[in-house]
Structure formats: structure tokens, C-alpha cells
Amino acid sequence: MTSTTEQFADLSATTLLRFATAGSVDDGKSTLVGRLLHDSKSILTDTLEAVEAVSAQRGQDTPDLALLTDGLRAEREQGITIDVAYRYFATARRRFILADTPGHVQYTRNMVTGASTADLAVVLVDARNGVIEQTRRHAAVAALLRVPHVVLAVNKMDLVGYEEKVFAAIAEEFTAYASDLGVPEITAIPISALAGDNVVEPSAHMDWYGGPTVLEHLETVPVSHDLTACPARFPVQYVIRPQTAENPDYRGYAGQIASGVLRVGEAVTVLPSGRTSVIEGIDALGESVDIAWAPQSVTVRLKDDIDISRGDLIAPSANSPATTQDVEATVCHVADQPLAVGARVLIKHTTRTVKAIVKEIPSRLTLDDLSQHPNPGQLVANDIGRVVVRTAEPLALDSYADSRRTGSFLLIDPADGTTLAAGMVGESFASKAETTVQADEEGWDF
To answer: How far apart are CA 404 and CA 402, in angstroms?
Structure first.
């Protein structure tokens, strides 16, 4: 029988790394991913044969490794990445979930998707072009999403003669910029994805570089997935009330534990109502257990009959989040239509969706110098800015710095369901602006 202590040890001793790639168009992201998969022998034979066949049809002498991730027809025709491509592979030292995200400005929204759960981001730079605006945008998104590790991969070193001074200048500029954004760890690696230099095997052309290859760094970077160290948060997804002869009085609340640990006998508070009770039982995989932890999916039974529905949050009474109708956050605007002051939106937080109105947009981030443009009035596609949102009903929010899951939300167009922006609650690299909430003139003043 495995003890609870041993179970927690197994949970925290993870060998999984989630990472995302980002970079401007033609910086070589898909080629890097293809090279990484190819040289680490993580490609099935039939897949490689298919890539070789397509490459030969195009008149290429060697396999186009970018085809391993660019699976959409439009991606192959245009030679760009459009959608997020997830790849799963493993080495003897670690398992990986890789999100190959688009580099085109138009698809920056997909970079937000891919990096939102990443432990590490690989930002590619073309050695010939250096740090450009899109590079800064990707660094800003990584910082905003609190990605703890960033790798600067200076690609196409073969096209600049493998010159150390070229790499050093780019690494210095990017490191200074990302550090100002608050990125905690930055590792710069000179590579050639096409030739394979410093991707999986060390380069024979850059003896001046003594650091790790990309794969070596991915295998050894320290990563913690111990969600049990955070306060318990249990968003309710579904109420189970069978009312059968076998279970006439059964009432359970099903969902996935977002963080922390739930225990039978623990005093809990249901938010936003504020009603309190005690956990009477926890059911997991058809069996009753005394303890459950993130990210398990379970059904929780409470001692008292409380009006609970989808969207409510169950949390320990000793450490429950505050509820608010005034949300101050940094958002990355991902829709084509602008987000303006006064816009009526839906805000989706965990399993809860409520009406809201954008009361103020205090500032927009200027990527060149990281200054704040005050009161822009609206945010357009790919803008990063501060917003103040007033919700129709209270939300139980944590700071994004404390919890990615319960500190994030989406703003949605109520007319057609389009995602407008991804938001992170609380402080970020952007300075907190003084806000003044204006009254709404058309009845959405909650």
C-alpha cells in the first residue's frame, strides 16, 4: 500500500516539461522543431518517409524537417506556421509536450495559447536580423504569462559565418530587454536548425561556445509541477444528483482540482455565496478517498445541503480567495475587432461565465521601450494593456502570479462567442496605473 507521503513524492518528482517555440516568420521555428525530433530519434519511420517524399516532389535534396510540424495545407503552401502544433516526444531523461506556435503577427494569439501552460519558451531570432518588434512581442507575452524559463535561440548562425560577435550582440540586447520585463531566467544558445548545430549535437563550427545544446538544456532545466503547494481551488463543473433507489440522497459536485489538496473533514467555503460547510466525502474513479489533489478530477460531497451550481468555487475556509466585481488585469488582445472602453463582454473564469463591461483601459504597452501609453481608449489586435472590468456577479479571483489557473480569464464577445482577450489578474511587468471607473450610460453599470 502506497502511503500519502510516497504519493506526494511521486507527484512532485515529475519528468515532464511543457515548452513552446516562438519567433518571427522565417526565423526557422518549424525547422528547429523538426531537427529536434529528427536528431533525437523521435520520429516514426513512416512519418519520415512521407516527409522525404514530399520534399523530393519539391525538388529538395534533403528532407524539409519543417513539414513535421506544419501539417495544414495552407502552412505548407505558404511556408509559415498558422495553427499551434503540439508534439509529444521523450528522451531517456525527460518527457516533453511541445507547442510549435506561429510567428506571424496575425497569429500572435496562438502564441498566447501555446505559452499559457508552458514551463519554458524558446524564442528564435534570425542571426541576420537580430531582435525585431515581433521578438519583443514574444518576450513580452512570455513575461506576461509568467513563463519561468526563456531560451533565446539565435538561429541561422551558418549564414553569418558562425561569428561570435553577432551572437553576443543579439544575446546582450535580448537579455537586457527580457530582464526589464521580469523574465527570471534567460539562456542564449547559438544554433543552425537547418544544419543541426547545437540543437541536439554540439556544433563543430562554434568552438567559442561552451554552453548546452538546446536538447541538453531542455533535459536539465529545473521544473516544478507541484500544484499541491498552492491553496486548494475546486471549480464546480457539474452537480451530480442521481436520485435513484440506490442513491436517493446523493449530491456531489464534480470537477477538476485546479490547485492544492482537498481532505475529508476539512472546512470549506463556497464562493461567491460565502456559505460554509465541511467535506463529507470525496469520490475518485468510483471509489471513496480521504484525500485528493490537483489536477485530479473528483466528486466532492459536503455535509450541508447548499445551493451550488456550475461556476461556483469550493476552497478551504482558512485560505479562500476574496470575491470582487472589479477586475484589474493585464490583457493580450487577440481579436481582429478592437476592445474599447464601454464594451460589453462576457468574462470566463474557470467554469464561471458572467456578463461584464470594460470600464477603463488605463494604459497600453509600447514594445520598443516598454513605456506605457496612457488611456489609449481601445486595444487592437496583438496589443498588450491594462484594463478595468466590472462584472455583473462576483468572481473569486487569485493573482495570476500566485495561480495561472485561477488568476486568468478570457474576455468573450457575447454576440458571437469570439475570444477577444486573454487576461491575467493583478500586477504584471506593466506598472499599475491609477484608475477611475466611469459610469455606464446604457444600463450596464453593475
So the answer is: 7
What's this model's pTM, rounded to 2 decimal places?
A: 0.79
Is the bond into 231 cis (omega within 30 degrees of 0)? no
Q: Which amino acid is it at 220?
A: T
Phi, psi of 280 (to 5 degrees): -90, -30
User: Residues 185-240: pLDDT tens digits?
Assistant: 999 999 999 899 999 999 999 999 999 999 999 999 998 766 777 899 999 999 99
pLDDT (mean) for 385-406 = 93
Surface-to-core class of residue 380, CB atoms within 10 Å of its CB (0-12 exposed, 13-18 middle, 19+ buried):
middle
Task: Identify residue 112 by its one-letter amino acid code.
Answer: V
Burial of 333 (0-12, 13-18, 19+ CB in 10 A): buried
Helices 164-181 and 133-144: crossing angle, nearest 10°? 40
Q: What is the spatial distance between Cα 124 and Cα 155, in angstroms, rounded to a whole number?
A: 6
Count of alpha carbons within 13 Å of 299, Cβ hemisphere only? 15
Query: What stretches of 105-213 show up as alpha helix (H) in DSSP?
Result: 108-115, 133-144, 164-181
- Residues 273/265, Cβ–Cβ less than 8 Å: no
Residues contacting residue 123 through CB under 8 Å, at least 6 positions apart: 21, 22, 23, 135, 138, 139, 142, 150, 151, 152, 153, 174
Distance CA 65, CA 28 (A): 10
For the segment 124-174, what is each residue's pLDDT rounded down to a tens digit?
999 999 999 889 988 988 998 889 999 999 999 999 999 999 999 999 999
